[in-house]
Amino acid sequence: MPGGNRVGAVCADEFVAENVKLHRKHGERRGGGVWEVLGAVLTLLSAAFILLTFPLTGWMCAKVIQEYERAVIFRLGRVIKGRAKGPGLFWFIPWLDVIQTVDLRTVCFNIRPQEVLTADWVPLKVDAVVFYRVVDPSVWVTRVKNGYQATHTLAQTTLRATLGAHTLTDILTQRTGIAKRMEEALYTASRLWGVLVERVELKDLTLPVSLQRCMASEAEAARRARAKMIVAAGEVKASRALQEAASGLSPVAFHLRYLQSLSSVQSTASIVVVSLPTELLDMFLSHQP
């Protein structure tokens, strides 16, 4: 959506501005003196040489990079001031400049299953997926060596530390909140590298076999208890309905209903039906305490 793209661009710009402030806060300065002057002289001589031999050297001094890439240029070992070059065509000095191309597209990687011990001492195997992208190519190149491996290692340690602070019940019921907290922790630790962590998701939780059996037995017992409660509640409702129906019958109607019930019962070798007068039953019930 266009609105989402604008919001992402604003967040990236704020991220870059924050990194610039951090650079200034830490007091990163370029050295001066004779070497600065010598570098400026070499740059001017190289530019004059390129202009004089432009038809021959023009193709050597041009480079094209894609829309999703940026070029960080090191001139005599130092990053050129300003933002990274690109996208499109730009010019450089081949014998003075070294170019490093950075991909700005979102990178997705899987965290290998990690052995995690929860706060209630339950061992788990958890894997996750992380989405991030580079928003400041200059910082990405100059602040960290092999940023991809560093980000992967940081994600693994953050996963273990975040899940280790929660119980098994919290992990099973609050996966979204735990993933959000992990995302915030990764952002705080990696923003100094020019990286913006966009999303973190927990993929799979693997429990020990013995614990799976215990949880399955507990769930089965709970289901049986609920089933017995439902059956008992049904029997109570049925008995109340029969009591209400019997209270509205006259003695003659009650006696006819009793005889009809006896006729509907089939007598077999295993079932013997004996009919008793209702008066005898009334006498027996009247002597009960």
CATH class of the largest domain: Alpha Beta
Question: How many H/I helices?
Answer: 10
Q: On the 0-100 scale, what is the average pLDDT?
A: 79
Number of spatially distinct domains: 3
CATH architecture of the largest domain: 2-Layer Sandwich
Percentage of residues in strands: 15-25%
Q: Mind telling me the CATH superfamily name of the largest domain?
A: Band 7 domain
- The helix/strand order is HHHEEEEEEEHHHHEHHH
Contiguous uncertain segments of 5+ residues: 1-10, 25-31
Q: Fraction of residues in helices?
A: 40-55%
In the sheet with the most strands, the strands line up as 3-2-5
Q: Tell me the overall shape.
A: rod-shaped
Radius of gyration: 40 Å
User: What gap, in angstroms, lies between the N and C termini?
Assistant: 81 Å
- The beta-strand count equals 8
- Return the structural class: alpha+beta
Function: Plays a role in the regulation of glomerular permeability, acting probably as a linker between the plasma membrane and the cytoskeleton.
Keywords: Membrane, Transmembrane, Transmembrane helix
Transmembrane segments: 34-60
InterPro entries: Band-7_stomatin-like, Band_7, Band_7/SPFH_dom_sf, Stomatin_HflK_fam
Briefly summarize what is shown.
Helices cover 54% and strands 20% of the residues. It has 289 residues and is an alpha+beta fold. It has three domains: 42-103, no CATH class; 106-207, Band 7 domain (Tetrahydropterin Synthase, Chain A), CATH 3.30.479.30; 212-286, no CATH class.
Structure explained in plain terms:
The protein is an alpha+beta fold. It folds into three domains: 42-103, no CATH class; 106-207, Band 7 domain (Tetrahydropterin Synthase, Chain A); 212-286, no CATH class. The chain contains ten helices and eight strands. The strands form three sheets. A three-stranded antiparallel sheet has the order 3-2-5, covered by helices on one side. Strand 2 (69-75) and strand 3 form a beta hairpin.
